[in-house]
Write a structure and sequence with these properties.
It contains nine helices and eleven strands. With about 300 residues, the chain is an alpha/beta fold. The protein has three domains: about 80 residues, Arc Repressor Mutant, subunit A (Orthogonal Bundle); about 100 residues, D-Maltodextrin-Binding Protein, domain 2; about 100 residues, Periplasmic binding protein-like II (D-Maltodextrin-Binding Protein, domain 2), CATH 3.40.190.10. A hairpin with a 4-residue loop joins strand 1 and strand 2.
Length: about 300
């Protein structure tokens, strides 16, 4: 069956006017081609849509059933150009975004809020995952973009693009009962407490950065626990299991029994950025990346 929008428009004109002559005038055409189009539509549907007499016409049961559907289809067809233009501009569609846990306390909420305000028709799928898991998902094309802790592995540099979004210093998370001082604090003041840290295989850059802070002071911390979620690390600090070095934005995670302490000026900062496939031409993704560039 091959229905044409033109046939439905002609049918609707005849159904509304209940007169072939008036319908033809409304469509700015002569009556014979209009009658031929209606006959072709009836042949396609294998049923009569109008009963005809020398003086009048009327809709058959099939015509009455087709009438509201024809109106709906034509109305939807009128909206197609705007729909396509919105999709081409990234104003509608789908965005699959993964993020590391620290992004949930810093860049993710404000960026999502701003993006939703300007792209309300975009369906956003969120997934929390460690950087290594996100890189695999990007390689397989399972997500559009990921908020990760760099670096990008050498083997993926030709496939993935990366843009820095945020740099922030490390701060100290200490069990409240051990936080005897909160000013002029050094890691030397808490060197007797064990360290809670990300596993190196999950976040090698962050792991090495944290241990580098200790090495600068000639310290070798005793690692008591490893955890892959920032909220878990902070929870272990709250339980008195040890101390942790965390990005400054994690202080937004309020947990009873934890004191956050700023360290002296240091060159050790945590970077969070967005990674995506270079061959991903999604307009929605480009709109999201433009937002990140604007707010950087």
């Amino acid at each position: 069956m091959n229905l044409e929008l033109r046939q439905l428009r002609y049918f609707l004109a005849v159904a509304e006017e209940m007169h072939f002559g008036r319908a033809a005038a409304k469509l700015h055409m002569t009556q014979p081609p209009l009658s031929q189009t209606i006959q072709a539509l009836e042949a396609t549907l294998s049923t009569a849509l109008f009963t005809r007499s020398t003086r009048s016409i009327a809709l058959t049961a099939a015509g009455l059933a087709l009438l509201p559907e024809a109106r709906r289809i034509l109305q939807q067809a009128q909206g197609l150009p705007a729909l396509v233009q919105r999709a081409a501009a990234g104003a509608s569609g789908h965005l699959s975004l993964a993020f590391v846990s620290i992004a949930d306390y810093s860049i993710l909420p404000p960026y999502l809020r701003t993006f939703r305000q300007s792209h309300a028709a975009v369906q956003i799928e969120l997934r929390e995952a460690t950087s290594d898991v996100q890189l695999i998902a990007l390689e397989k094309g399972e997500i559009d973009a990921g908020l990760i802790i760099p670096p990008i592995p050498d083997r993926l540099r030709n496939l993935l693009a990366y843009q820095k979004v945020l740099s922030e210093p490390l701060i100290l998370a200490v069990p409240e009962s051990f936080a005897t001082k909160t000013h002029d604090v050094s890691l030397l003041d808490y060197q007797h407490l064990p360290l809670i840290i990300f596993p190196r295989k999950i976040a090698p850059a962050l792991h090495d950065l944290i241990l580098g802070c200790f090495r600068e002071l000639g310290l070798t911390p005793a690692i008591s626990q490893e955890a892959i979620q920032m909220q878990t690390i902070v929870g272990l600090v709250s339980a008195g299991m040890g101390i942790a070095l965390v990005p400054q934005s994690v202080s937004n995670l309020k947990r009873p029994g934890v004191t956050y302490i700023n360290l002296p000026q240091t060159s050790h900062v945590v970077e969070t950025g967005v990674a995506w496939r270079k061959d991903n031409t999604s307009p929605v993704l480009q709109a999201f990346l433009t937002l990140l560039q604007t707010k950087e």
